[in-house]
Write a structure and sequence with these properties.
Layout: E1 9-12, E2 15-19, E3 24-28, E4 36-39, H1 41-56
Antiparallel strand pairs: 1-2, 2-3, 3-4
Length: 58
């Protein structure tokens, strides 16, 4: 099985995103060299739900 191509995308505010086939990885640059966050599908769903709630209440 081929591993997905890891394309890095700049999101803004020093945040870069990559996808490893399961997790979306967020790298925070400019703060330190070790800050990484892995968003597994369930966590991404929860983040999207949070965003939707903010939009509804704004």
């Amino acid at each position: 099985m081929n591993e997905p191509k890891k394309v890095e995308t700049y999101l803004g505010d020093g945040v870069y995103a990559t996808f490893d086939g399961y997790n979306i990885w967020l790298d925070l640059r400019g703060q330190d060299d070790f800050t990484r966050i892995a968003l597994e599908p369930a966590v991404l769903d929860a983040l999207n739900q949070f965003r939707d709630e903010i939009k509804e209440n704004s």
